[in-house]
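Readers of this paper often ask what the protein records in our data store actually look like. An entry from our holdings is shown next, in its original layout:
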Amino acid sequence: MRYISTRHGRAAATARNFDAILLAGMAPDGGLYVPQRLPRRAPAWFDALRGLPYADIAARVTEPFLGGAVPAGEWRRLIEAAYRPFTHPAVAPLRQLDSDLWLLELFHGPTLAFKDYALQLVGPLFDRVLRKHRRRITIIGATSGDTGSAAIEACRDRETIDIFMLYPAGRISEVQRRQMTTVPARNVHAVAIDGTFDDCQDLVKGMFADAVFRDELGLSAVNSINWARIMAQIVYYVAAAVALGAPDQDVAFAVPTGNFGNVFAAHVARRMGLPIARLAIATNRNDILTRFFARGTMSLGTVEPTISPSMDIQVSSNFERLFFELVGHSGPKTAAAFRQFRATGILPITRRQWQAARALFQAERIDDEETRAIMADTYRRTGMLVDPHTAVALAAARRVKRDQTTPMIVVATAHPAKFPDAVVSACGVRPKMPPRLANLMALPERRVNLPNDLGAVQNYVRAHARLGVAA
């Protein structure tokens, strides 16, 4: 397996192996790495996964993407260790809500959000590769809430890594913030930025675009721009579909998304042969994706705060990977289009490309009022509390027209205790804090506030990153 940049194309001379793209995160030309060719799996291959533990499915799904970078036995041990701390024996259990409606619970990891399912694997992978090459890296990330805590948990106390997570000040929940700022590890730095998530994401991209700074600090990324994140997220789509009858049975998914990474992993699973009949994208009122799929225009808007803050995004970075497919895997076309998007706020796309995208995805916009209504209705009918992001996906799932014989799987991306104020406002009940969060509010915080200024952030990173060769 070799990887290419979305802004370069299929040229073999520029293809890189898994170790290289893991550490780089983002391509030097500003593009995102994708496999030269995706592995295709026959129905019998998926059928053989039925009844297997999650770790076994993970090993089989991800193995081709490694390209032999990790021996099979060692990879299996890394996977087992990654998912051992998860609190549910099924790791990613399904819960039935209706005859054809299911929740895929992705909040049983260390930080109670779906990001754990990838990052608990990616952290040890980084460590293994860095020790092998006697290197140290500086991870720079932007978070709208959950990526930050999951990445910090995966990378904390690792001698090979310094991690700096940028988050929009005042625009994430208190629980999300404290999960980052209360970690006492010396290699962890939580940085509040005076701006939106998109501003944080732009700062990260600006640091990667500065070749001198990138090389000096050995920058790497753990956001879903890193293909390793996408690779690990494919697993739970396969596991859920197989549990509900795939490959003999088609399934559908409703996915709350802002940065397009989570739903893109489902798209990759479908490209690999998983029989997904429908992929419903669920957005809040920051609806750049819904507007695109409805009208064929991708244009930037203003980021508005909502009760589902992890989706308060207007620049969906992973959409570039889909765009690369839509333009026939043309690196030059992708590069030109995203230069124009950055300059004008409008992504150039043809009607044929838009129609091809609409054949793959359906998108729904859910505002705060409907989100609260779904949270309250779910609690009233089932006694179960859901977080606002999951509620956005539930609302989208109920709107989507589909064959009632096709199971609809709603991706539950976070534990309701991560958003207690939103749950209380919708349901009148405060979710019980899981043991992992029991003393979170009593712990001292460590954070720094910085302006939305690239130079200021770079100066801070330079001053606090540990440089040199890892021991």
